[in-house]
Amino acid sequence: MRIVAIVNPMSGAGMDPAIASARVAMIRDELSRRRLDGSVHLTEHAGHAREMAAQAASDRANLVIVWGGDGTVNEVGAGLAGSATPLGLVPAGSGNGLAAALGVSRDPRDALATAFDGRTMAVDMGKLNDRPFFNVAGIGIDAHIAHLFNQRSRGRRGPLPYVIIGVREGCRYTGAEYTVTLDGEPRPTSVKALLIAFANGREYGMGMRIAPQARLDDGLLEACIVEDRSVVSRFLHARHLALGSIERVPRMILRSVRSATVESNRPIEYHVDGETGTTDGRLNVSIEPGALKVKVR
Known about the structure:
By secondary structure, the chain is an alpha+beta fold.
């Protein structure tokens, strides 16, 4: 077997080089213990993980292990999508939503054991225009919060800053007007939305479940459209994310879809697995069933 490991030295580690060194050493020790041929690489810049994963797939590696957060996993998944090379995941970010959906342990040794010994599962890949996602893509307040969170320097992230930003922006964010078409329906929905999410996995991370019924391998995305009503209603109903009862939020649309379009007369702020962007006018949403192979228990 030929193994390639891709480690983000910053995910969950800030600027501490000792943590990155320990991650590399743990993988190398495991490779040696199993008498497997493998190489370990550190990411150096945005997009680097995707480049290395694509090369590993081209070289027909037997397994690519990614040690990092949702953004790094997104890059590696995009590089491997459509190939026969499976992804093994060691979660190390702030949210780790895909790892939660897959049931991958937060303990690195347990996660490595799953990467080497687990069964292979084919999961779907969503696309927002040309940007892939494997867990959740969102438009509105979640994208805005992700943008502000990503602007924080390494070492100043983590769950608490994310919650603080969420509370602050929950008080002052203003929703936008959107036209949403689900599965080509003849009558699109016009709505002032706080949030429009397309979920392949169940949760954003940290137990915040935007689509409790979502499955990674059913060829469908769960569309969740939350109308922007008032600041009070935002905080009143935010508890449903933690409780896994998002369907109880009033005046909300929750549907399983294969495609969608979202249009607005102002720039649309969005995220794919927590990685943000902005586009003008229109976003097209689609799904590619079974595009990525992953290792699970």
